[in-house]
Amino acid sequence: MSRGQLTEAAAHLRRAGVILHATEGVWGLACDPFEPQAVTRLLSLKQRSASKGLIVIGASEADFEPELAPLSAAQLTLVRDSWPGAVTWLVPNVRFPDWITGGGTKVALRVTGHPQARALCETFGGPVVSTSANPGGSPPAVSALQAGAYFPHGVDYLLPGEVLQAGQPSSIRELSGEWIRGAG
Q1: Which of 35, 58, 74, 83 is most buried, by CB atoms within 10 Å?
Q2: CATH superfamily of 3-175
Q3: Starting from the edge strand earliest in sequence, which strands make up the sheet with 171-174, in order?
Q4: 129 - beta bridge partners?
Q5: Counting Cβ atoms within 10 Å, is residue 34 exposed (0-12), middle (13-18) or buried (19+)?
Q6: Per-residue confidence of the chain (184 residues) as pLDDT tens digits?
Q7: 0.90 exceeded by the pTM?
Q8: At a CB cut-off of 8 Å and minimum separation 6, what does 150 contact?
Q9: Is 9:19 a contact under the CB 8 Å cutoff?
Q10: Are 120 and 6 in contact (CB under 8 A)?
Q11: What is the CA radius of gyration of the chain?
């Protein structure tokens, strides 16, 4: 992956595009979380209901400052101890639209442990939606070839890359420490 490829991927995101990219354990579909047309396209490609909500990834804790500011010191320690990494936290929503939260009061956030995914967020200039690259009911893609085969049409760009641990999607946790998906 080159700097030019990252720049091109980020440009697609800025134009309400949907891209494929590698994450910690699976390939992801990404878009601008504040662009309703992009999120609608992504959900359509994935055949996913908006009511399920989406994960948003960032390059650093600063990408989620508004959501982290109200947390207690103990909650912040829990979150910080897992980032960057493959742990997604459900935190009280501050600024993300209903099409990201599924209409709920919480938003799923992660500072990704994948260096290329962090670089994508940095190049884009903020957090991005990142949901597993698979149509509903199919296993998540673990390679660029599989991701491209799932989505031969409708995706604007495939950012070349590799997952870190194939087949291991991020864990999801509540601030109470409860594991919603996966385990530490």
Answers
A1: 58
A2: DHBP synthase (3.90.870.10)
A3: 157-158, 19-22, 27-31, 128-132, 55-58, 106-111, 87-92, 171-174, 179-181
A4: 31, 56
A5: middle
A6: 689 999 999 999 999 999 999 999 999 999 999 999 999 999 999 999 999 999 999 999 999 999 999 999 999 999 999 999 999 999 999 999 999 999 999 999 999 999 999 999 999 999 999 999 999 899 999 999 999 999 999 999 999 999 998 877 789 999 998 888 776 5
A7: yes
A8: 133, 134, 135, 138, 141
A9: yes
A10: yes
A11: 15
- Contacts by 177-182 with C-beta closer than 8 Å and gap 24+? 177/78, 180/90
- Beta carbons within 8 Å of 176's beta carbon, 6+ residues apart: none
Whole-number Cα distances in Å, 167 to 74, 95, 162, 170: 31, 31, 12, 10
Is 34:129 a contact under the CB 8 Å cutoff? no
